[in-house]
Amino acid sequence: MPVTPQQLIRWKEQGRSIVALTAWDYIIAQILDAAGTDLILVGDSMAVVLGHETTLPITLDEMIYHAKSVRRGVKQALMVVDLPFLTYQESLQQAMHSAGRVLKETGAQAVKLEGAYPAMLETVARLVQAGIPVMAHVGLTPQSIHQLGLRQQGKTEEASNRILNEAQALEQAGAFSIVLEHIPTDLALKITNKLRIPTIGIGAGVHCDGQVLVTSDVIGLSEKQPPFAKVYTNMRQAIAKAVQDFSVEVRERKFPE
Ligand code: KIV
Description:
Elements (H helix, E strand, L loop, with lengths): L4 H10 L3 E5 L3 H9 L4 E4 L3 H4 L10 H14 L4 E5 L9 H15 L3 E3 L5 H12 L4 E6 L5 H4 L8 H17 L3 E5 L3 H10 L4 E4 L7 E4 L1 H4 L16 H17 L6
Parallel strand pairs: 1-2, 1-8, 2-3, 3-4, 4-5, 5-6, 6-7, 7-8
Bound molecules: 3-methyl-2-oxobutanoic acid (KIV).
């Protein structure tokens, strides 16, 4: 049975940790899905895989193009697509239009969006009422890089209380899950204990209900990784070695045999 948003909530109740990773095309999605990943996110961090410095330049059409490819590789995992910068913040109508396009055109089951200010809470509630499952994202929100930088968030008591309140408000608005990015471990634990919906951490410590990482970091494809990522294999080196071996064999006329 494919994973659903409700399943993630049941897993939290059962204390089963949720595994989430990002994907940007069919091949990566197929590998992640077959390996048992619970949630596959077509994250706007894909902008970096496409050569951008930040997540801001990626467009809704680009997200949809890649999400369609990911969809073809996903059989079991819950598939979530990020709404990119300024495709949902302008108005409720814009958010509904963008999220609707994502679900209709890609076959994803849910969208993710960043922030928790009052208009965004209203947007989350209205999307959910319209039948669009929403994953929320607080703490370090990369679409606000020009305001927040890439620094850890929630370090002062005031900031920590604000993020806790935001998480609770997003749950109330109807989000089925929430990404906690780059916040202190004790704050993530507090939020995780207070919420009924699962928290998915990235740079938020071990107490979240699940963990997400950017796949290009996990497999060592990215040129550089954030401090909280873990590199499990070095695909840059593996690819470079394969290319060098191929080049030698072509130049020495050893391939094809
Ligand atoms: O875009 C992305 O990859 C994300 C993760 C960092 C959660 O939002």
